[in-house]
Specification:
alpha/beta, 26% strand, Rossmann fold, 9 helices, four-stranded antiparallel beta sheet
Length: 243
């Protein structure tokens, strides 16, 4: 479970996160929706401990990110949009294994986990190839695997399907649904309406650093709510590259 309470964050004199409060429940996929510049990525960076809030509290699976950042990090797997930085001279296996060891896993434990991830993400055919020359989709899958190799209870995904072909998108989405079935907490930022419809249980809509709607997917897609919020949601969700 992720719980944010009255979280604020400023850069200089500009307040970009304004008393943000919401929860993402275990065993559910929560969609985090907002236009570019609305505060989505900043909020996710606050949750992941990359940034520190000015005020308020963030608790991830019982660990306070300010008081227990190391404990919180161990509970999280994080993949930000476009973050497919890998060591080109290493194989996919070696890249994932390296990050597993950073998480304190021994080699045998890591090897078993990598085999599971490779099968679920359909990476077997290139698992032992150097990543130099990999396609965007192949690199994205390896990056996804390295971020969750330690089997975290909480997963943060910022635009996980960006740049993927239709087959890779299916594999990644199927795996996200598997994480939900395993009882994990998944917070996913996306502009893709198909992804929202297929994956999400609940939706949190942010605009100008404030949460303006937090409801079930069914209620929001049914158009329940004020006209200005619903117009903004459908503009962002359907706009994709324009949002």
């Amino acid at each position: 479970m992720i719980n944010l309470s009255n979280v604020c964050k400023s850069f200089g004199k500009t307040q970009v996160i304004k008393n943000v409060s919401f929860s993402a429940q275990s065993g559910q996929i929560t969609g985090f929706i907002g236009a570019n510049g609305s505060g989505k990525t900043t909020t996710m960076r606050l949750i992941s401990t990359i940034l520190k809030p000015d005020s308020g509290s963030i608790v991830v699976d019982g660990a306070d990110v300010l008081r227990e950042p190391n404990a919180a990090r161990k509970k999280m797997g994080v993949l930000f949009g476009g973050d497919v930085s890998l060591y080109n001279r290493l194989t996919a296996w070696e890249n994932i294994l390296y990050f597993a060891k950073l998480q304190g896993m021994d080699e045998d434990e890591a090897a078993e986990r990598i085999k599971v991830l490779s099968n679920l993400l359909d990476m077997d055919r290139y698992l032992f190839r150097r990543v130099q020359g990999f396609s965007r989709g192949m690199r994205q899958k390896v990056a996804f695997a390295k971020s969750i190799v330690h089997d975290p209870s909480t997963i943060l995904l910022d635009e996980p399907s960006t740049g993927l072909d239709i087959y890779s998108i299916r594999d990644v989405q199927d795996f996200i649904l598997t994480c939900k079935e395993q009882g994990k907490t998944v917070l996913v930022s996306t502009h893709n309406m198909h992804e929202i419809e297929r994956l999400c249980d609940n939706l949190v809509i942010i605009s100008d650093g404030r949460i303006i709607r937090n409801d079930t997917k069914q209620a929001i897609l049914a158009g329940e709510g004020t006209d200005d919020v619903m117009e903004m949601f459908f503009r962002v969700a359907e706009g994709n590259s324009h949002a």
